[in-house]
Amino acid sequence: MINTKKIGILLIVLGAVAALTAGGLWLYNDRQDSEAYEYSEDVAQTLFEAIAPAARPTGGDSAQAPAATPGVGREGQEGLGDILENERNPIGAAPALVVETALNGAIRYVVVGGNPYIGVLRIPSLNLDLPVNSVWSMEAVKYTPARFSGTITENSIVIGAHRIDSHFGRIDTLDGGDAVILLDVDGQEHEYQVSEIETVSPTRTLSVVHSGYDLTLFTCTYGGRSRVIVRCMRTTNGHDDY
């Protein structure tokens, strides 16, 4: 004979466990979002100051920008390979005010806190100013968006980030024609507008990398079952000389 009382108690216990698990996950995500927001904000401000005074956000710090130390991303010289091999400041550490610029093929970047950034991604309609790490890794995107593939100059850049409010959690609310701006390390603004938004299978990597669009942003849906893809086209020419 089935003991309905025991079954009821078991269901109550299972419900409580599920609620606690969901609550713990929410607190973890909330903390991660807060940490990512603070880190991205600090790095973005450092980049604004390092890139060019004219590129600083309205009302930003007017202090003297830190001097940049030139370097070239080639073997045997200070550059991207050396930075990744000898991380002087681990990712997640407070961004350093000492920066250096370097050239690695067609990718120019500024080093902040031991991590290379190609510039700042600005999405005015979402009130976002986000530093973009030049190197893709799951560790990197815990703190900032990162370049998944491509370059600005080749009109093929793909940028990914986690689906948290302070990063790409709201990109599926963008509308066609919304502005997206990439501020590069030379202070040049590359302007784009949203052309298409779609949700695709996470296995459709080629459609993300070889989309034919000048700029692609992507993030996972909640639960990671699909990807949200925002495809953009240029509205300005930008640099053609590096």
Describe this structure in words.
- The protein has one domain (4-234): Beta Barrel (Sortase, Chain: A), CATH 2.40.260.10.
- The longest helix is centred in the first third of the chain and has 48 residues, at 4-51.
- Strands 1, 2, 3, 4, 5, 6, 7, 8, 9, 10 and 11 form an eleven-stranded mixed β-sheet that branches.
- Helices cover 24% and strands 30% of the residues.
- By secondary structure, the chain is of the alpha+beta class.
- It is globular and about 75 Å long.
- β10 and β11 (227-234) form a beta hairpin.
Give the termini distance in whole angstroms: 79 Å
Number of helices: 3
Average pLDDT rating: 73
What's the story with the biggest beta sheet?
11 strands, mixed
Poorly predicted sequence stretches spanning 5 or more consecutive residues: 17-28, 58-90, 94-98
* CATH classification, class level: Mainly Beta
Strand and helix order: HEHEEEEEEEEHEE
- Percent strand equals 25-35%
> Which fold name corresponds to the CATH topology?
Sortase, Chain: A
- Please bin the fraction of helical residues: 10-25%
Number of strands: 11
State the domain count: 1
